[in-house]
Amino acid sequence: MPVIAVPTSVRYGINRGGYNALLSVLGGCVPGVLAVNIDNGVGAAVAAHRINRLAVKGTG
Hints:
Helix content is 48%, strand content 10%. The chain has 60 residues and is mainly α. It has one domain (3-59).
């Protein structure tokens, strides 16, 4: 299952505008994790939509 990581710029300890959250996501380098930019919910939604379309095409 793919995981989409969306680092946020608020409420993450010492967040420095989301930079620390982004670095922790990128530093994990885990296969199957898609990281989008800080506060990029729209980009995450587009990626999720594209993943869903690929899944539907693969079952047919």
